[in-house]
Amino acid sequence: NAGVTQTPKFRVLKTGQSMTLLCAQDMNHEYMYWYRQDPGMGLRLIHYSVGEGTTAKGEVPDGYNVSRLKKQNFLLGLESAAPSQTSVYFCASSPGTSYEQYFGPGTRLTVT
Amino acid sequence: EDQVTQSPEALRLQEGESSSLNCSYTVSGLRGLFWYRQDPGKGPEFLFTLYSAGEEKEKERLKATLTKKESFLHITAPKPEDSATYLCAVPDSDTGRRALTFGSGTRLQVQP
Q1: Residues forming beta bridges with residue A65, ordered by sequence position
Q2: Are A63 and A82 in contact (CB under 8 A)?
Q3: For B54-90, how does the pLDDT look when each residue is reduced to its tens digit (9 = 90+)?
Q4: How far apart are CA A6 and CA A104, in angstroms?
Q5: Quick check: A1 pLDDT over 70?
Q6: What is the spatial order of strands in the sheet that A64-67 belongs to?
Q7: A40: which chain B residues are within 8 Å (Cβ-Cβ)?
Q8: CA neighbours closer than 13 Å in the CB half-sphere of residue B22
Q9: What is the rounded CA–CA span in Å between residue B99 and residue A88?
Q10: Residue B67 to chain A, least CA–CA distance (Å)
Q11: Which end of chain A is more exposed for a tag (fewer CB within 10 A), N or C?
Q12: Are strands A102-103 and A42-49 parallel, antiparallel or unpaired?
């Protein structure tokens, strides 16, 4: 039982490049979330999903897209990376029967 | 607007020196208050959920308490391994997405 996993762990992009971050959970959770964490600003919700095939915007969705084609996977895409997207990205999942969320180990992204 | 404020931002203690961390919140209709621990380079790890004023939860040297406007995380006789950032969070007023609003955290350092 791995819980929530994220790949890759680290990535450096140049401005304008694209990439996809993968989140996988093996707990059969309905809800999945993508957050970014920046110094002094806490965790901010980018996008979320309430079930397979559904996605919705969070607080800071601009510049990101997501997909949830399978219940266990939640992908976060950056189509044209900008330096402002330099951050640590966390994926989380929740069963939906409570508000408790379980987090992955994070992806540290640097955009130069 | 949902708001979570944590204080202090950083706290340095000597081993064995007890103290408390504060989390104050503004949310319409509290559906729980969550405490997480985050080690450097890792994702937040769930510690406690408190649901009603007066409730207390304990785990090893940590005790969380809840009032109608704030929560405290009491650390009794801390050890260096308690060094981490402690985050608190409350569920969004938007109940559909079952998301959490996080505070910026308190960075705790316990020196031997």
Answers
A1: A77
A2: yes
A3: 999 999 999 999 998 999 999 999 999 999 999 999 9
A4: 6
A5: no
A6: A4-7, A19-25, A73-78, A64-67
A7: 104
A8: 8
A9: 19
A10: 19
A11: N
A12: unpaired
